[in-house]
Predict the 3D structure of the following.
Amino acid sequence: MSYQLRITDTAKKEIERLPGNIRQRVRRIINSLADNPCPKQAKELRDLPGRYRIRLDDWRVIYRVEQDQILVLILHVRRKTGPETYRDLETKG
């Protein structure tokens, strides 16, 4: 079963600001989530059920899986700076 992918406006802006080589890798990761929304390298965020992160060097792809809608919603692509990376996660589409 293939999941629908949706990227928030915030995440789109963050992706456009990434260095070129990282941007391409992030896009590949996002596209692969349609076939497997919870790959081995994805970690569920503590205290935020249904939200995951995938590590890519110093960057994190943060997303939510909505099983009932067969949807993967990309929330943010942020540089890992500490615990504040996961604060104020936007949930709107």
In short: The longest strand covers residues 71-79. The chain has one domain: 4-83. The chain has a mean pLDDT of 90.
